[in-house]
Inverse folding.
């Protein structure tokens, strides 16, 4: 491992954290993680791809673990809303070779992850052939026609393999992702997005969905998971039932929309000492940032008195992105520099 002296200790520790998490929490996913590849295997992949040397942190990681068997759910985490499910697997070297295609928008890039259900793929830029900074990890997103021409835009999910994989390990290590149906769901909880009214606590976690978002025209899609719980210390006389929801939705331009409705996702949860109830919903913005806040109207089961339980403000921001014209401009500048 002498060739990886600059990153081996870090990558080994990162993988140890990932392995420990899945072994304890998701043993079926743990069983899909593969042993490391050899130097000869990595050299063979480089020869087949023809893109030059793969990034050192990528090579080092694959010496430790060669991705996972192509299965679902994957180690990169899952997400589900009505009519849509994703779970990304980290590809092994053989599957990277099979999935490699030199096509518009991903030239000089290799597939890194794949969701078997949606086809969602993250790519790693090995060269700058298509205008990406080398080592960039991204989701390609097809734009609507611009002046009669379609471009490949992209949401950026990482600027190096090392940092990208470390971010996953950090989230797993911190238990940021709830485990649902024996797999980690990529909801991230902001500690500030939690508020208690009397004995009832409302907590919110969010997730951006690049695969059903658009950069042009802008439509940035987010899902959120709300958990409502009543303290076990609450007196039984505080038991109540949710009747209505009330939302204030604000985009980055300050435009505000108010939404009122019965129940939550068709349910009218009952809160009693020690009870909790979680639900998932979604929203979208035409700006890169937006937020929501509101309250739930509750009816006391003994007195029928009504009260309001606050939902704290929660923030939603899309991933950074690059549009096709920016990539084309980068390609032209680099071509001009090389000519000089």
């Amino acid at each position: 491992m002498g060739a990886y002296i600059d990153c081996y200790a870090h990558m080994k520790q990162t993988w140890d954290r990932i392995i420990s998490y899945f072994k304890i929490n998701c043993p079926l996913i743990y069983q899909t993680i593969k042993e490391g590849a050899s130097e000869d295997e990595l050299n063979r992949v480089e020869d087949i791809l023809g893109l030059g040397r793969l990034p050192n942190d990528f090579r080092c990681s694959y010496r430790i673990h060669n991705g996972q068997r192509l299965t679902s759910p994957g180690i990169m985490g899952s997400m589900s809303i009505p009519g849509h499910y994703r779970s990304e697997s980290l590809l092994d070297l053989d599957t990277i070779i099979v999935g490699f295609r030199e096509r518009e928008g991903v030239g000089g890039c290799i597939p890194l992850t794949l969701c078997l259900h949606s086809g969602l793929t993250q790519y790693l830029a090995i060269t700058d052939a298509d205008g990406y900074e080398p080592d960039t990890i991204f989701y390609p997103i097809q734009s609507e026609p611009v002046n009669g021409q379609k471009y490949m835009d992209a949401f950026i999910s990482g600027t190096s393999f090392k940092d990208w994989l470390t971010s996953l390990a950090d989230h797993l290590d911190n238990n940021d992702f709830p485990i649902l149906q024996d797999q980690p769901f990529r909801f991230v909880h902001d500690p500030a997005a939690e508020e208690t009214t009397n004995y009832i606590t409302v907590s919110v976690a969010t997730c951006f969905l690049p695969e059903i978002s658009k950069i042009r025209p802008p439509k940035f899609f987010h899902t959120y998971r709300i958990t409502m719980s009543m303290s076990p210390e609450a007196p039984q006389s505080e038991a109540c039932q949710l009747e209505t929801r009330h939302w204030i939705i604000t985009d980055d331009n300050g435009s505000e929309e108010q939404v009122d409705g019965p129940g939550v996702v068709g349910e009218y949860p009952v809160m009693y000492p020690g009870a909790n109830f979680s639900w998932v919903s979604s929203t979208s913005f035409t700006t890169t940032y937006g937020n929501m806040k509101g309250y739930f109207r509750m009816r006391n089961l003994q007195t029928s008195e009504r009260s309001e339980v606050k939902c704290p403000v929660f923030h939603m921001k899309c991933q950074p992105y690059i549009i096709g014209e920016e990539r084309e401009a980068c390609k032209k500048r680099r071509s001009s520099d090389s000519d000089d």
